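Bumping with the actual sequence this time:
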Amino acid sequence: MLSSSIPEVQYLLDRQAILDCVNRYARGLDRHDDDLLLSVYHPDGFDEHGPFEGGPSEFTEWANGFHAEHTLSHTHNITTHNCEIDGDTAHAESYCFYALRRKTSKTVIIGGGRYIDKLTKENGEWKIKLRKLYIDWRAEADATIFDTPNGYPAGSWDRKDPSYERPLRRTGGAQ
């Protein structure tokens, strides 16, 4: 973790590290990457996520299990992010827009909510100590137009997803 002796610079470094943590959560969830998802929580962290309440390992198993059982694909997008830092403790509110395509391929659940987080900096790293999810709205929509990818490649729920490819290369033609 980077550090600075200039308070304003340290604030910006901390704020960015907190936002990176929140964004890693969304990526870990959408790629079903257990290690990445676990990396955003302190081992004694706690998540209050609707019907689920528990620690990082249990949450990771529950969330990825739920998505695998009930959806064909999903995305969680972090939008507005507010953060207050006081020493090695931070409180953040991160808005989330999500879409969950049901296994039937006929409908998609879309919604908006907020992650309310208490994060702490331990051993130089910001991680979630307590997360509470609030769903502000949700709807179900026709998803039959998504039955075929229309020439677009599909991602995957593992490290075979192209977002892990290093270096990123063209699919066809000259490199």
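The tokens above came from a reply further down the thread. The first strand starts at residue 41 and ends at 49.
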